[in-house]
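Recap from last week: sequence in, structure out.
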Amino acid sequence: MAEGRFPTALVARSDVEILRLAVRAHPHQPAVALWRATEFAMLRNVTFAAPVLDLGCGSGEVARCVLRSHWPVDGLELVAREARVAHESGVYRSVMRADGTALPAASAAYGAIYSHSVLEHIPDDQGAVREAARALRQGGRLVFTVPSPAFAARIEAESGAAVLAATNARLGHYHYRSLEEWTACLGERGLAVVDSHGHLPAATQRTWRSLDELLVRRVGGRRILDWIRGLQRRRVLPMSLWVAMWSALLWRPFQRPVDEPGGYLIVAERHS
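Predicted structure tokens:
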């Protein structure tokens, strides 16, 4: 392990623990929990140095799982409500409300920048990479997960271009870059890819999609996931039973071997 670099809080977690952790972080959306679990599993052996910037931190639920082993951690989030929840979460030293293409941070301020399924939601993703490279110190790491071109290709092959366009609009996805494209884009900004892994195989993606489509259906004018979220907020959802049930149901798709990946984990270091 390089001096000053430490593994994430997931390093000693078993597969069962990781899946349960993901379900507990996203109890209202088991589809998201499945996707997150496949990402969490790849992060067990990743190391990076503090201070850390969580780029696109949302409400902080992912950082609570991944970054409890690092301090200080700052968050950056564009959506006001999410930034407010993140600020109140106790996960971060500070939370900045800003666009990822204009980081309110000094150059060489961070030992690592972590971005979990965020760059695909930024229209100018390369602007965000440029800013991340600027804010990293020499030897610092940009660690991020993104969907791959296969994710989009599968949906289009199974359901057509119109359904893919509707899915992209609902999820807010702008880009599906190949690993080769990412390597070239990062290299142009002085970032060298030092590690990469694939996740979300085709069969797992189909399970994710079936669950996602089910949970966004409306019952009584509300999405099913909103009904579940309401039960959670009123603390009437039997959480231990709920986590155990969904962990059992998602175990097989979580454990499927990766053939052609539907997403990537990429670790890049700033060398110049």
